[in-house]
Design goal:
Number of helices: 10
Strand content: under 5%
Number of strands: 0
Structural class: mainly alpha
Distance between the termini: 51 Å
Order of helices and strands: HHHHHHHHHH
Oligomer: single chain
Shape: elongated
Helix content: over 70%
Radius of gyration: 18 Å
């Protein structure tokens, strides 16, 4: 694979305003594929695509602000971008927004909101959200304690989330 050549052609399309190409260019700068890693250039291209309501780029902006990559870290700004992408149905952004509520980052800690966003992502097959939702049902955090629901979510997460196996075995003993 020649990432440098791919970047050259993607830039031509991105400069014409196509949000998917802009997102791909941003990702290449973020990962350092075909170019030196450059978070500021990644931010520039993520912003261009996000301005066109491209949900994956909106979620990526949330990530950049959350971890201070190419910009000063800003949890409130991260929440804003995660929410925009999450409301469009982006499961990664839904999971990340749930995590922000779970940890009280940029928003007041709110376990019910965390569960809501985890559920939205989990229903789309996002394994880490399924796992977290299962744990929340075991403990009754943000959702009613419900071992059947916990078992279901953990079972769905198990092929990807190694930890789920242990939790499923523990749950079987309850």
């Amino acid at each position: 694979q020649d990432y440098g050549e791919a970047l050259k052609w993607l830039l031509k399309v991105a400069e014409q305003g196509f949000p998917r190409a802009q997102h791909d260019v941003a990702s290449m700068y973020y990962e350092g594929q075909g170019v030196s890693r450059n978070y500021r250039d990644a931010m520039k291209w993520f912003r261009k695509a996000a301005a066109q309501e491209y949900a994956p780029s909106q979620g990526s902006l949330g990530h950049m602000y959350r971890y201070g990559l190419g910009v000063p870290g800003d949890f409130a700004e991260a929440v804003k971008w995660y929410r925009r992408a999450a409301e469009k149905g982006n499961p990664t952004a839904q999971f990340n927004l749930g995590s922000m509520y779970m940890n009280g980052e940029g928003v007041p800690k709110d376990f019910a909101q965390a569960a809501k966003w985890y559920r939205d992502a989990a229903e789309q097959g996002y394994a880490t959200a399924q796992y977290n939702l299962g744990l929340m049902h075991i403990e009754g955090v943000g959702v009613p304690r419900d071992y059947v629901s916990a078992y279901m979510w953990l079972l769905l997460a198990e092929p990807v989330q190694e930890e789920a196996k242990v939790d499923i075995e523990t749950l079987k003993r309850k």
